[in-house]
Design brief:
single chain, about 325 residues, mainly alpha, Serine Threonine Protein Phosphatase 5, Tetratricopeptide repeat, 3 domains
Length: about 325
Amino acid sequence: MKRKMISVLLLAFLVFAGGCTNKEKEENQEAYRQIGINRMKEGKYDEAVKAFQSALDQSLARIGERELDICYYKAEAQYLAGDVTDAEATYTALIEYDKKDANAYYLRGSMYLAEGRGQEASEDFAVAVDCQKSDYGLYIGIYEQLAAEGESEAAEAYLEQALKISGKSAEDYLQRGRIYLLKGENDKAKEALETALDKESSEAQFYLGQLYTAIGEEEKAQKMYESYAKEHTDDPKALINLADISLNQKEYDKAVSYLRTAIEKQEGTSSRDLRKKLIAAYESAGNFADAKKEMESYMKDYPDDEKAEREYEFLQTR
């Protein structure tokens, strides 16, 4: 069994369900997991929580990588459903199971921060980076969380910590370039990202695209995003940026094409925002028929979006 022993808290999430073979239980677990993910995409968080719990119920009190993955999904769904106490309990159970789990500390800290529990957030963030001292992504994630809450000084401190990580690999230069971008130090960012690209980091193309966008060189940005998208066909983020450039250039048909492809590739709840942007692109192109059709589909999935409902009423008059 992985690690020393199962924590009492995490064991409480796993319920024995008899009557099925192990193979059937594995298949049922994956089916419930996928249902939970789909319900999260649809914004049906309470249903997602139930599905993830049903997935955990198939575990026969075993804890492996899949069970931990489901617990992470469950905690996110609980929080999005407004069940802060339950989400906290799930993250705490994950921490009790593995006290070196930086991701659990980071996510619980992010939740604390959003809930105005700054001291607890600071404590969790500090433990997270202590567990993963060389994880650039962790420092950047904490920076973004703190910056979003207006804690600019604390946020900058994490970027400075990350810059102290030594290394000369393509990944090191890539991550330092990202950090310099966040700090607004564009010359240093360009130098680091071009070095990463020379060391064959294809991901550097995406961040160079961001850099060129920031300094107003959209043509160079577009080329970088296009190169990245060709090499990372399952990643929609470059397509989203290409859509933004196309919208700025009033090339609405191109923006629509990029957005439709991005939506097909997008996972999680963020596809909701892309669908709204797609509707706006159709409207800007004067294609009110497709805008209305897309809005009808959107309203079926998100009937509580009052702003979208008003926009839908407008489209019905066109």
